Amino acid sequence: MLVHVAAVTILVNIAVIELDSFYSHSSRKVLDVNSVAESPLHRVFVYGTLKRGEPNHGLIKDAANGYAKFLGLGRTTVPYPLVIATKYNIPFLLKKPNVGNYVLGEIYDMDSNMLARLDELEEHPKFYERTEEKVLLAPESALKPEKTFEEVSESTRAWIYFLPKYRSSLLDGPMYESYNNNGSHGLKYCEKYVRDPSYDHRKDVQ
Fold it and tell me: Fewest CB within 10 A of the end CB: N or C in the chain?
């Protein structure tokens, strides 16, 4: 009889421990969901190395940097000069409206943590400057050869990283509609971790 009571007591204790563990884990899940829900989302238009398939896209994919969701393809509503410059072949969107092309890119919603990582990469506001602009957003599946971008897109506002101060000579070179690191231009991007720390590439463009 004593053995039976002891066995029942052990089973009850195990059940209590498991229930406590379950509810503790569930409460942590609720807290995680709430923290994401309470975090403000920021809409961002990327046009260069942060796009899918480009050298810095891993930053957006890495959940350790924060939350990001791909919404679709984007296009500026105003032409801008998209150029590739410095010996590191960095793509720059110059803050010179109505010059160049309507620029194609991608649009993401992201939380403040991810936005902070992008600011760090782009050296905002000391080098690049992030400003909110009107852009067009189109679901990737909606793009068809017989349809124009305007026909399948909607207007939205998104942050864009511009180079606000630049040498006028940058306007004399090629201007691109869409950036591709493996494009026919042959200008392969040099990632930050392999750059010469003694060389200031900013002086090449400003």
Answer: N
